TrEMBL record:
Keywords annotated in UniProt: Hydrolase
Annotated GO MF terms: hydrolase activity
Keyword Nucleus annotated: no
Family: Belongs to the AB hydrolase superfamily.
Residue ranges of domain AB hydrolase-1 in the record: 20-257
Organism: Senna tora
Name of the featured protein: Putative esterase KAI2
Amino acid sequence: MGIVEEAHNVRIVGRGNQSVVLAHGFGTDQSVWKHLVPHLVDEYRVILFDNMGAGTTNPEYYDFERYSTVEGFVYDLLAIFEELQLNSCIFIGHSLSSMVGVLASISHPHLFSKLILVSASPRFLNETDYYGGFQQEELNQLFEGMRSNYKAWCAGFAPMVVGGDLDSVAVQEFSRTLFNMRPDIALGLAQTIFQFDMRHILGLVTVPCHIIQSARDLAVPPVVSEYLQQNLGAKSIVEITPTEGHLPQLSSPDIVIPVLLRHIRYDIPDAS
């Protein structure tokens, strides 16, 4: 195993000829895909990894300057692809990683046959002509909560983001992976994510995009998925699932896993 693979806990399972890359979002690690992986291993070569900053990675490797922009994660993704000598893949990115995949596909479109974007947003902050879901004051309060008492913040943030029953397995699982992050890293990463604005690069995307969005998501309103579809340069399709929360692959696998499998297996038809 190479240095990059080891740093990101890269794991390869399955025996298919086509590769599927699963990339997780903020506060989680590769375990967030545990309900999907068993459905893929008989048909695909599945590549999982942990983003730097996840609780499963070495915090000494986290560079606050490098990860102050999404590009830091793009460089990591491309380094993993290079070390694995990966020439083409179906990329499934959740939240932060959806936009990492979008950005990587602009400079290296040949590496991606399609992008499947789960709970994706190019901008979380509201603007005069754009609704992302958050006001700056709300984000300031979120950051202050993380600074003042990270454990208490996790206890409140996890059920709010996952949605549904406070005692659900999904809430407990997200609470665990969120709390495993080093607090200063979690804060720095949250500031990177919630303050970024990637709307200006959407028109440069040429790889087909499948956008999967919960009907009720505190972090990403469904209108954001419509904005993505209208502004992406590539052909795209949106599917709103009858689910609640920002991590539907974890909280509603019975609904979302069949949707993901359908989008993995079928391509967007060309407009006639």
